Amino acid sequence: MSAVWHPFTQHGLGEPIPLVTHAEGAAIFTGADKVGGGRRIVDAISSWWVTTHGHRHPRIVAAMREQAERLDQIIFAGWTHEPAEELARGLRAIMPEQLTRVFYSDSGSTAVEVALKMALGYWQARGEARHRILVLEHGYHGDTIGAMSVGQRGVFNRAYAPLLFDVATIPFPAAGHEQATLEALARACVDQHAAAFIVEPLVLGAGGMLTYPPAVLAAMRAICADAGVLFISDEVMTGWGRTGTLLAGEQAGIVPDILCLSKGLTGGAVPLAVTMASEAVWDAHFDADRTRMFFHSSSYTANPLACAAAVANLAIWRDEPVRERIATLATRQAVRVAALVDHPRVTGVRTLGTIAALEIGGGGDGYLAALGPRLLAFFRERDLLLRPLGNTVYVMPPYCIGEDDLDRVYAAIGEACDAL
Ligand SMILES: *Cc1c(COP(=O)(O)O)cnc(C)c1O
User: Fold this and answer.
1) 105 is annotated as contributing to ligand binding
2) Which residues are marked as site: Participates in the substrate recognition with KAPA and in a stacking interaction with the adenine ring of SAM (predicted)?
């Protein structure tokens, strides 16, 4: 029996854990020599939302290979290297110009931890006792203690609840209730003497692919600006074209004070994250006094191989028709998902860019809905990598996925609606 302990996996259920040997484009493959192997599986969730251009994009692979020949790893406190510098320049060129500073870390969770620490450091430096973080109901920002603290409480973090810090939760802007959200936010900014508001723009991913309109995002941004509360945009999932634009925030015309990016930053090839900050946030830490520096690091901060992969990702965005691919995929998904709208067991159909989601058999039971594992097995038997959130089925493929593979995905979802 394997010694490997997998994430978000109940090993006691004895569910199969396939051994993946290689991947290409929108497909992953299990080894032909293994039991149950030799299968081609459609990666319909981009290997948990990270793979944007497809697996093993030649340019990203080449960039990492070339970088490995030169410099593998170097301490980043007090030292720098070309891939990190080039990536920062590239990000500055395509991200909102108000975000002038780039801080590296390793994952979406650490990008969020960094953002929260930057926000608190900002207020500390200004001599104002602001430390309350405002969060949106159903939000998800990662699985470290700080990231869990600002995320939705529930079965995922019940055991750790005593360690999580207090936040003020703003109700999700469900259709018809947007005004209540905005009023609650405006009130909390003042009453809580808030330091920052952290939010996933336009779509709450792990919370169930819950969408809300750009106008609400723009209004929330304006409320925080008026109150002087830092606005942290967690674009870890939504960034890099997922919602149809490079950043989801673009659709609302907003620029945050602090921006978190990870997942598609390297095209999904290797772990890397950035937290981009405004000049004001940087300035709060800029001083000749060493006690005011930004106290955060991890061993592999700005790993050169990861930075090289991200530089290649930027080149792909610049040189290849990525936006056209995204638009094409969005249209293809919208057509297929529209065919399911009238199915009697389907509710809540929604699409946003390359993301499509729906509920099978009504909602309400949450992540541990009994239907979830049955759906997972149903899709696995059909060689599809889909991982429903409870009875919310969503599709979020790499941008290179072909029409045949999409047909297979949607045919299986249709079948699941009939059969389960
Ligand atoms: C996935 C995700 C994270 C956490 O990223 P990890 O790399 O898994 O730590 C944070 N925020 C959002 C919105 C995410 O979707």
Assistant:
1) no
2) 8
